[in-house]
Amino acid sequence: LDTSKQNAISRRQLWLLFAVSVFATHVWGIVNILREYPAWMLRMDLWGLLGTISVSLLFSLFDALLPFFAVLLLAFLVPRRFFRARLVAGGSLLILTISLWVALFHLNPQWFNQRQMVPLAIWGITFPLVLGLGYWYVYFRDGGEQMLLSIVERLSTLAALYLFLDFIGVIIIVIRNI
Amino acid sequence: MVTVGDIPAVSRRHEKKQKGMSVSKISRRDLLKMLPAVPLMKMSWPHLVRAARDQAQTSGQPNILFLVFDTLSARHVGLHGYQRETTPNFARFAEKATVFHQHTAAGNFTTPATSTMLTGTYPWTHRAFHLHGLVRPDIAQDNIFSLLPPEYHRVGYSHNLLVMSLLHQMRGNLDQFMHTRELCLSDNQLADRLFINDYTAATWGEQSALQQGGTAPGTLFLSLLNRLNRSLDKRRLEGELGALYPRGVPNLHNLFFLLEDAIDWMGSEIQGLPKPFMGYFHLLPPHEPYTPHKDFIDIFRDGMQFEEKPRLFGAQNMSQQELNRQRRLYDEFLANTDAEFGRLMDMLEAQGLMEDTYIVVTSDHGELFERGIRGHVTLTLYDPLTHVPLLIHGPGQTTRQDVFTRTSGADFLPTFLQWTGQPVPAHVEGQVMPPYAEGGAGDGRDIYAMEAKSNPKFGPLQKVTVTLHRDEFKIVGYFGYNVEDQFELYNLQEDPEELVDLYPQGGSIARDLAEAARAKIAAENEKFTLS
Prior knowledge:
The complex is a heterodimer. By secondary structure, chain A is mostly helical. Helices cover 84% and strands 0% of the residues of chain A.
C-alpha cells in the first residue's frame, strides 16, 4: 500500500466530494418533496408535514453517503494516475454522471418494467460514452479540470445549505420521536 | 425478587405455624371420607373449569374478540344471497351468532371505515379519510380500547399498514401492541423500527424516499438498493412457498404474510391472554392481490356471468369479462379466508372461549366488480363497497338470530360500551346495535358513508361523495366534482343490485333525501368551522 503523505486524501477533497454527493441526492430529493407536497398538504397539519419532510431529507442524507463512499473505494482500488491524481474532478464527474443516469432510470420506470429494450439500450450505451467524454475533457483538455472544480466549489455552497436543512430536520425528527 | 408463589408450600406452612396461625390439615380418615365424591367431581369438571375461569375474571366482564377481514363485501357472502358458496364457515358460525343483514361501512377504504369502527364517529368528525390518515387527537382519545373498563387487557394487531397508523396513534391505550412484522413473513419497513413515536409521518417519508409510486422515489441510490432487497425477498419467499401459492405469496406492497400464521397465533395465544381481554385483529385477506392457497385455485371456474350494470359517475373502463374474471379470483381468495376463519373458530370453541367471549366478525369495506370498476379505490360508494358482513357471537350463544335493521360501523364503540357497562361519550355518532340496546334502537335513523380522499383534511367538505340510507332508500351525492352536484337514488329493497337510478324521475323522496344529504354536509362543515 502506498501510504506516502502525497497520496493521502485531504480533508478539503473529502468535503468537496461529499458536497457533490449531497448536492446530487438533495436536488433530487427536494424536487421529489415538491412533487409530493400537494398530496401531503391535503392530509397533514404543518407539524406533520415538517416531520415527513425531515424524514425525507434524512433519507437524502444517507443517500449521499453511497456515491461518496463508492468514489472513495474506487480511489483506493484504481491506480493513482487514472483517478486519484485528479480525485475531486474525476470523482465529481462520476457522481454527477451516475446520478443523472439513475435519475433518468427512475423517471422512466416503464423502460425496465415493460422491458422497453430500445430506450433501455440507449440509456445503457450512452452512459459510458458520456462518462468517457467527460473523463477525456477533465484529464486531457487544458482547463477542463479547472472548469469542473469551479463548478464543484459553487455546488459545495449549496450543499452546505442542504446539510443545514438536514440538521434542522434531524432536530425535528428527534423532537417528534421523544 | 422472590414472590409468595415462589416459596414452597412447606415453608409457608412452617412460617404460619411459627406465627401461631391455624393450619388446615387433612387426615387419612378425611381423605377416605372424600373418596365417594370423586366421580361427582369428574362429572362436573368442565363446569368447575368454567367456574374457575369466571372467577378469574374478577369483574365478570366478557372478553371481546373483534375480528376484521379487510375488503370483505357482504355481496359475496352466501349468508346474504351470493350465488357462489364462498363462505361455508361463516354460515356455520352464523348458527351460533347474530347475523346483521344490513351492516354499512362508513367508507370505501380502510382508513375512514376503520377509524369509524374504532371511534364511533363518522369520517367528517374523525377526519381520517386519506391514506395513512390519522384521527383528530381529541376524537382519538376516546376509542374502543381506552373507553373499556380498566381491568381489560387490550391487544391490537393488523396486517394492514393503514390500520397500523391508527393503532400506533392509539398505542398508549393498548396493553399489547403487536407490530405488523410479528405475524408477517417480511414487512420491509423502517418506519416501524426507527421512528416508533412518529410512525405515520415517517411512513410517508420512507415511502416517498424509497418506493416508486405515482412519482419517482425520492432517493437515487437507496431506492435501488431497496428495490433489489425487495426483489430478493420476493424471490426467496416464492422459492419457499411458490408451490403452495401459485398466484404468489400473499402480499400487499412490500408486506408478505400468510393468513395461516396469524390464525395459528390467534388459535394458540388468545386463550392465554389475561382476562377479560379486548382483542382487535385486522387481517388483510381477501384484500387484493388475490393470492389463495393452491387448494382454492380455480374452485369457482364455473363460467358464471354477472350482468352488466349502468356506468354512471366514476365509472372506469374495465370490460365486463375482465371484471367477471377478477371477481372469480376474489371469490377464491375469499373461500380461502373463510376456511381459515373456520379453523380459528374450531380452535376457539375447543378452548371454551365461545362461552365467555363476544366474537365480532366483520370487514372495514367491500370490493367492487361492476360498472367498469375493479377494487375499492374509487369515488363511488355502491353497495358492494359499503355493505359488509357482521356476525356477532355472544357468550354462550347457541342459536342464530337475524337482524334486518340497518347498522353502521359507528355502532361498534357504543355496543362494546353497553356490553361492558360503560357510558357512551356524547360526541359518539353510532348507537348500540338493536339486539343489545335497551328498548331496541336503530330503526328510522339515517346512516351514512363517505369518501373524500381529494378533500383537505383540515378544511370544510367540498369534494366529497356521501351516501345516506333512510329506510329502504339510499341516495348517493357527489359534491364538488363537477359544476353541479350529482345524485343517484336507489330503492335497495326492490332493487338491491342498484340497477335503476330513481333520482332522474324526481319526486318527494329524491328531493327530501338530496336535501338531507346536502344539509348534513353543511351542518358538519359548520361544526368544523366553529371548532
